[in-house]
């Protein structure tokens, strides 16, 4: 009750109405009596677990913001509270009363903004934008970044796991930008990019003459990043010898330069990242267990791009804009068919591969619209192993009953190799029938007021017309340009623009 009495006196002086509950049961009864804006919940209660009470509060009064007070639990438990909906947590004993008051005021203001429909953008939105962190719109990413924003302000180490290219360094930069160290240096180092002896010198520095080529004293990253943030990328690639030295710095805040005898103190926040399973590496004796637990205070798992496909259009738009800023020109548009292909691809290289794909497509695109033929062969071959782009949509359709019109069409498509044995007259008649069927189906769709498939971009139609004309005239550019009503030079220019050859 001492803590309750303290908060009553503190907050009533500020004009708040305060209710003190000495147990979980009393807190539940208080929730039934009236509405609250903020609840201060201790993790250890006489008759209840603080996390359970947090969930009870959120179930009964979703608009009540909960601040967890922790003095008996680990940081992991406090982070779990945030994942369950807590506004934030604060450690006991309270060393800075002004910090406590400020946190309560923020929770109260945040709750009011939600009730009045304000605050459509999360409070971390501007920080993410400045850090170049495109969060996207998936609930999983929003929740993760909201937690990262709160954790950023705590002086605790962070471990980021995720596949190559998922944006681990960008998340680390966001954590630094949202932290109280944002005015100091953020220094990234890839532990897998250096041989062991060079990595040691890179991290801890060296004295003059410490080894061959050490012609002068050099400060290491731990020294340069003092009071800032050090991002250790690919931490799983660090040797066991380097791991021992890292552990000492994390435990004592002290280290020696290579060849040095003077202890150097450093205050560095560590954000480590890896694309391997560190827990498995610990079991395989490839990574020190004590270092793992020092780094794994808070862990974030970045989802691969294939699990957040709905963010692809936003990411594409972002990369197009970035590319145009470098080139100082208007970004091209992306055709509907191209975007569909981008959405279907599995992206083993994740966001980094998508960024490179857009850069390559922009380089190949001489016109205002990026078309499927501007995408890399790797993507197209992955989506269409037999290079049957035009019929891929139909082949991917679910099986249909054989005794229906669609079943007959599907059967014809499945056995298309038989078309080459048809007589010329039969093929020409079939071609005319298919075109007439296509027109008739379009009319039926319009009559039923059904949504048609997204129409192709004008450039796609033009590219198809050029291919058809060249095919009809067996590659004769003069005849093809005449039938298209354009000059030979114009046709050659458009063939280059659409990446069409005469093969």
Any overview of this molecule?
This protein is of the alpha/beta class and 503 residues long. Helix content is 49%, strand content 10%. The chain has 23 helices and 14 strands. The chain has helices spanning 2-12, 24-33, 50-60, 75-83, 97-115, 125-130, 139-152, 168-177, 196-204, 221-224, 240-252, 278-283, 289-295, 312-327, 336-344, 350-364, 377-383, 392-395, 405-414, 424-447, 458-472, 477-484, 488-497; strands spanning 38-42, 65-70, 88-91, 158-161, 186-190, 205-206, 218-219, 229-233, 254-255, 264-265, 269-274, 298-301, 333-334, 369-370. Strands 5-8-11-4-12 form a 5-stranded parallel sheet. A 3-stranded parallel sheet has the order 1-2-3. A two-stranded antiparallel ribbon has the order 6-7. The longest helix has 24 residues, at 424-447. The chain is extended.
Helix content: 40-55%
pLDDT < 50 runs, ≥5 residues: 389-397
Gap from first CA to last CA: 85 Å
Largest beta-sheet details: 5 strands, parallel
Number of helices: 23
Helix/strand/pairing class, anyone? Answer: alpha/beta
Q: Roughly what is the average pLDDT, rounded to an integer?
A: 87
User: Could you give the order of strands across the largest sheet?
Assistant: 5-8-11-4-12
């Amino acid at each position: 009750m001492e803590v309750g009495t303290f908060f009553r006196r503190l907050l009533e002086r500020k004009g708040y109405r305060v209710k003190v509950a000495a147990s979980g049961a009393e807190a539940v009864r208080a929730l039934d009596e009236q509405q609250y804006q903020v609840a201060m919940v201790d993790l250890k209660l006489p008759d209840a677990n603080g996390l359970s009470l947090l969930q009870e509060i959120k179930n009964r009064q979703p608009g009540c913001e909960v601040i967890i007070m922790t003095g008996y639990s680990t940081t992991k438990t406090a982070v779990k509270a945030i994942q369950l909906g807590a506004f934030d947590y604060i450690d006991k004993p309270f060393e800075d009363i002004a910090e406590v008051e400020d946190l309560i005021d923020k929770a109260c203001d945040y709750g009011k903004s939600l009730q009045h429909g304000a605050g459509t953008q999360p409070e971390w939105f501007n920080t993410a934008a400045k850090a170049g962190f495109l969060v996207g719109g998936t609930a999983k990413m929003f929740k993760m970044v909201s937690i990262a924003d709160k954790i950023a302000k705590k002086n605790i180490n962070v471990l980021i796991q995720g596949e190559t290219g998922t944006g681990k360094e960008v998340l680390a930069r966001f954590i630094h930008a949202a932290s109280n160290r944002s005015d100091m240096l953020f220094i990234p180092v890839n532990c897998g990019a250096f041989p062991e002896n060079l990595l040691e010198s890179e991290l801890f520095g060296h004295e003059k003459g410490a080894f061959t080529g050490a012609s002068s004293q050099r400060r290491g990253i731990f020294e340069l990043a003092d009071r800032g943030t050090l991002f250790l990328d690919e931490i799983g690639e660090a040797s066991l010898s380097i791991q021992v030295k890292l552990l000492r710095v994390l435990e004592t805040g002290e280290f020696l330069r290579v060849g040095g005898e003077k202890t150097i103190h450093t205050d560095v926040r560590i954000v480590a990242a890896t694309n391997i399973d560190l827990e498995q590496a610990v079991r395989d004796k490839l990574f020190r267990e004590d270092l793992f637990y020092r780094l794994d205070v808070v862990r974030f798992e970045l989802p691969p791009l294939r699990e957040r496909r709905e963010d692809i259009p936003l990411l594409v738009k972002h990369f197009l804009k970035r590319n145009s800023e470098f080139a100082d020109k208007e970004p091209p548009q992306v055709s509907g068919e191209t975007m569909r292909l981008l959405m279907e691809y599995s992206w083993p290289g994740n966001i980094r591969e998508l960024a490179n794909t857009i850069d390559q497509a922009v380089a190949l695109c001489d016109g205002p619209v990026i078309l499927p033929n501007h995408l890399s062969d790797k993507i197209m071959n992955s989506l269409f192993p037999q290079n049957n782009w035009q019929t891929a949509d139909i082949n991917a359709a679910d099986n249909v009953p054989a005794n229906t019109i669609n079943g007959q069409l599907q059967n014809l498509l499945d056995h298309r190799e038989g078309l080459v044995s048809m007589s010329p007259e039969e093929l020409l008649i079939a071609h005319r029938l298919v075109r007439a069927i296509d027109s008739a189906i379009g009319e039926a769709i319009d009559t039923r007021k059904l949504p048609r498939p997204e129409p192709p971009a004008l450039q796609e139609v033009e590219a198809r017309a050029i291919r058809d004309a060249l095919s009809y005239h067996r590659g004769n550019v003069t005849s093809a340009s005449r039938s298209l009503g354009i000059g030979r030079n114009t046709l050659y220019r458009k063939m280059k623009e659409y990446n069409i050859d005469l093969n």
